[in-house]
Design a protein that fits this description.
This protein is an alpha+beta fold. The protein folds into two domains: 159 residues, Beta-Lactamase (2-Layer Sandwich); 71 residues, no CATH class. The protein is built from four helices and eleven strands; from the N terminus they run H-H-E-E-E-H-E-E-E-H-E-E-E-E-E. The strands form two sheets. It has a seven-stranded mixed beta sheet, with helices on both faces. Strands 8-7-11-9 form a four-stranded antiparallel beta sheet. Helix 1 runs antiparallel to helix 4. It is elongated, with a radius of gyration of 19 Å. This is Cache domain-containing protein. It holds the Pfam family MCP-like_PDC_1.
């Protein structure tokens, strides 16, 4: 019976991830189609053309304001005619207002330059063509919260256009874990692929901290968290585990 709580928690996390990547796949398709349309017209995509994605982005943000901190597309160099470095990225307003555009430093000569090309959520999809889940990490460039970033590569033939991505609040997974576990007194954690805590039901193990194998309670089984689809995703599987009390 007690294992059922852990299994339920793992299933609910899978549902969240599958839903998020389903949405990112749609956004990636929209960017691909937008790029294909201007290419057929003999033109080059411009940053202003990305406004066509905003209706879908805003709708998604409004659907899940507690879960999604931000979402949008991040472009590879030379994809846009007027910008070499660009994020069409929108965030949920903490006060519940309209989505807020993320302003970052695009000047490579500046100390505050936001060099997203080196970030794992951008570099890994570019290099491998795989989806990726990165985190949890503190998002100093955006919200200063613990975040998970999900990214889906966008390609036109062999050309890498960028990624469709989403920032998810780690604390939302913590709420989900607590709701699923009900009255289980055992310390339980959701671990990422490197053994770092995504969420837990104990204040002694907070998001971002590492868990050694010796801290796991071997009397409880682990429950893996994988995408339901067969598409490869770096950073998974996660797992729901019981810890020693």
């Amino acid at each position: 019976m007690r294992e059922r709580y852990l299994s339920t928690a793992a299933d609910e996390v899978v549902e969240v991830l599958d839903d998020a990547f389903g949405w990112l796949g749609q956004l990636a398709t929209q960017l691909h189609q937008l790029h294909a349309g201007v290419t057929r017209a003999g033109e080059v995509l411009r940053s202003e053309d990305l406004a066509a994605l905003r209706e879908a982005i805003f709708a998604r943000l409004s659907e899940q304001p507690r879960l999604i901190a931000g979402t949008g597309v991040i472009l590879a160099p030379d994809v846009l005619a007027d910008r070499e470095h660009w994020l069409e990225w929108w965030q949920n307003d903490s006060a519940g207002g309209a989505p807020v555009f993320l302003e970052v430093d695009h000047d490579p000569t500046s100390v505050g330059y936001y060099d997203y090309a080196t970030a794992a959520w951008f570099a890994r999809p570019e290099r491998t063509g795989e989806r990726v889940v990165v985190g949890p990490y503190v998002d100093y460039a955006g919200t200063d919260e613990y975040m998970l970033t999900l990214a889906d590569p966008v390609r036109s033939g062999t050309r890498f256009l960028g990624v469709a991505a989403m920032d998810i609040r780690a604390k939302t997974f913590e709420s989900l874990l607590l709701n699923s576990l009900g009255g289980v007194a055992q310390p339980v954690a959701l671990l990422n692929a490197t053994g770092r805590i995504v969420a837990s039901n104990t204040p002694h193990k907070i998001a971002g901290s590492l868990v050694a194998e010796r801290e796991l309670d071997a009397q409880w089984p682990d429950f893996p968290v994988r995408l339901a689809s067969a598409v490869e995703c770096a950073g998974l599987p996660w797992r729901v585990v019981a810890l020693h009390g």
